Amino acid sequence: MNRGCRTASLVGLLLLGGALALACPALAERLAVDAEKGQLSWDPSVGGGPVEEYRLKCGPAPGTYTLPVIKVSPALTSAQIARVLPGPGKYFCAVTAANRYGESGPSNEVVVVLDGARADTGVARSSAPPKRGSAPTQLVDPDEFRIGPEDSLLISVWKNEALTRTVTVRPDGKISLPLVNDILAAGLTPSELRNLLSNRLTEYIPTPNVAVIVTEVRSFKISVLGHVSRPGRFEVKSRTTVLEALSLAGGLDPFASRSRIVILRSDRKTTQRIRFDYSRAINRSDGFWDKIVNLGGGYQENFYLRPGDIVLVP
Question: Which letter, b or e, does each residue of 302-312 get, where b requires 16 or more Cβ atoms within 10 Å of its Cβ?
């Protein structure tokens, strides 16, 4: 939550036995992109004060939401995004919940990539070779996201319907396509896979124009175990921080050791143990009040998790 909400909650806890701690709305969760409809959707806030509006925020860089805020009715949990972004390009978006007492912190951040042109009329326009049908909004950053098993991919080859199809990455990390047969997709970015397919298809098609679009992310799974309300394995659709993962698991229970949380990260050969201090992460400001709450210590970075990470709360 932001400074105003956090201060109100702390004052409420200290002076009114927690009566004011519920004034601010809770965090909205699981922000995701619908590639076909060109819209963002999220899970409604649960707990805290009543939501009076959701605020959709986007910008050109992670954590920098400089575009005009889109206000959404609290009765809705989705909003059209392709029509309000200023033009083709890559945008980083998040949603917050707000009421008269303040505003929650941002949800998980998602990347929206508009390929070709903005969707003013609901149909994307392309300045390059036309794509098959209306061009879907890319769910992920094609230069950063790493494809994994169970992800759904739209492979489009311009002017070749026989090669254009939607495929699912198999458990062995491969996909099957005519002419190229089996090809390893897991571990590659969409851009890298596009280049690989283009090179393989040059044996059969002169100058093939290939597009690779991630239509559904299913490979990003994380586990949260230990003293949380709902331990388990979670499938997420975008980059997720440690605090967001804990929120998905319902938050810490009263017996959790907040300063001894461990993230287990495996690279198949070794397992790395990363310490995480929950209290310092939620009080990371350098302000005077925050230093008192944080016992004068430094802050904990709320870093992004990787697929397969295990968050262990002792």
Answer: bebbeebbbbb
